[in-house]
Amino acid sequence: MSRGGAFLGDARSRLLPVSIPLRFFGAATLFHLLAWIALAASAGEWLDFDGGLGWPLAALHLVALGVLGMTTLGAGAQLLPVATRQPAPGSRWMAAIWWLYTPGVALLALGMGWPQTRWLAAGAVAVGLAFTAWGVLMIRNLRGARGMPGVVSHGWVALAALAVLLASALSLAGTWRGLSVPSRELTLGLHLVFAPYGFMGALALGLAYILVPMFALAEAPAERSQLISCALAALALLLAGIAAFGWQPVPLRIAALLAGAGSVGLHFQLMAQALRTGMRRELGRSFALVKIGWGGLAASLVVALALVLELPIARLSAWFGLCLVGVWLLSFLLGMLERILPFLGAMYAAGTARRAPTPSALTDERALRLHFACHVAALVGLALALAIDSARIAAAAALIGVAGALAFCVFYVTLVARLQRAGA
Ligand code: HEM
Predict the structure, then answer these.
(1) Helix or strand (DSSP H, E) at 289
(2) How far, in Å, is the centroid of ligand 1 from the Cα of 151?
(3) What is the Cα–Cα distance from 379 to 381, expressed in whole angstroms?
(4) Residues in the ligand 1 pocket, defined by CB under 6 Å
(5) Does residue 26 form part of some domain?
(6) Does residue 331 belong to any structural domain of this protein?
(7) Rounded to whole angstroms, how far apart are CA atoms 85 and 294?
(8) Which residue, judged by its Cα, is nearest atom 7 of ligand 1?
(9) Atom of ligand 1 lying closest to residue 49 CA
(10) What is the model's pTM?
(11) What is the tens place of the pLDDT at every residue in 123-141?
């Protein structure tokens, strides 16, 4: 079994042109800022959010699609070919996907926030087409895969979930346009599971089997355990999917949560082992964010159980959204992004620059320190606002989130400027 970045040996030969990942990660950084601004503008509404259109839903999708989706498209297109030892997708295709996806997300979010259902529908179609094109590129890649069966299996689960995500999303958009589509109850039930846990979750768990050993310089976790965790996750999605159709919803959802907890528990065990046995022990703030993310994943399953059992707890939907998208997916992703960006930048520079800068030379530590403090304070503030029902604290927390997102923009802009200065 290879240790750390050994598989990186021929990764350089599979690098997409630097402008491709940088435009995806750059757009994600900007949408991150817009998401916090949208939440700050609707903090009171967010406290009582229980579905439906408005700026809280727009803020949720600026994170879900603008940050998570955008980074997944960019990182997936670069990391999966390295894992499967296949050529990277054509950069022209990736550029076209970016030009369709980015304005699509902006239009969708505006359509949700204003609300303008015509914009929502147009944005949904553009985002749907971009995801479909990306999905086709990934299917071609996974079909030719050689090696890493654990990562590849998570890739297939994520692509299957992407199909359900897109069908449910377009149907939900159709509902708001008054089209004759399946019931909102069914499509929202599918959407809530297959979007965050199915597509995003399977990719976050799968790519962690590449990224965590790579950054910790550890052995890759046992393939067999990766496959068992993946099978449990697929079972959880299947059970939750059947429950959405209204057949035995409560027992099936509890069974899905148990299978999901089994999958996540095994995943955490494998991650803890990699971090414990890795040659690099001190992984810094970025991995503190990753661990906060893992905590959010575990908490989201507990809140999901409370939702299934309809426990009399106030604002459960908002708690679920906070744990799922705010604490888990966003913290995990920003933690990984602040490591991937300098790492990728240094790899590019090594091939082209006059003086090859190291990852730390490309990193503005002060900006990341500020981002970390603001991100954590904002999440704690939002939780406090939910606990004591305070719109004022929610607004203040969201504004701290805006300050953190601005600091993350500074980190990104500084990195690009230092890459340019190094002639990369
Ligand atoms: C093509 C992309 C997408 C479109 C067009 C879309 C559209 C929608 C629409 C219209 C709703 C509102 C449903 C309603 O209340 O009637 C919704 C809800 C939701 N979406 Fe998406 N979505 C997309 C992708 C995603 C992704 C990638 C995620 C998460 C990672 C996500 C997470 C959610 C959640 C959590 C809700 C439920 C909010 C609630 O009612 O509590 N969506 N989506």
Answers:
(1) helix 284-308
(2) 26
(3) 5
(4) 51-52, 57, 60-61, 64-65, 68-69, 108, 124, 127-128, 165-166, 169, 172-173, 184, 188, 191-192, 195-196, 200, 317
(5) no
(6) yes
(7) 28
(8) 169
(9) 41
(10) 0.95
(11) 999 999 999 999 999 998 8
Q: Residue 323's closest CA among 173, 197, 134?
A: 197
Give the confidence band of 17 by pLDDT, cuts at 50, 70, 90: confident
3-state secondary structure of 399: helix
Please give the Cα distance from 374 to 368 (Å, whole number).
Answer: 10
**347: in domain:** yes
Residue with tokens 């990193």: 363
For the segment 296-345, what is each residue's pLDDT rounded down to a tens digit? 999 999 999 999 999 999 999 899 999 999 999 999 999 999 999 999 89
Instruction: Spell out the long-range contacts of 156-159 with Cβ–Cβ below 8 A and sequence spacing 24 or more.
Output: 157/198, 157/202, 157/206, 157/230, 157/233, 157/234, 157/237, 158/198, 158/199, 158/202, 158/203, 158/206, 159/135
Provide the residue range defining the domain that includes 379: 282-424
> What's the total number of domains in the chain?
1
For residues 293-307, one letter each, b for 16 or more C-beta atoms within 10 angstroms of the residue's C-beta and e for the rest, the string is: bbebbebbbebbeeb
Q: Is residue 421 part of a domain?
A: yes
Residue type, 162: L
Which residues, including other chains, have CB under 8 Å from residue 378's CB and lie 6 or more apart?
36, 397, 398, 400, 401, 404
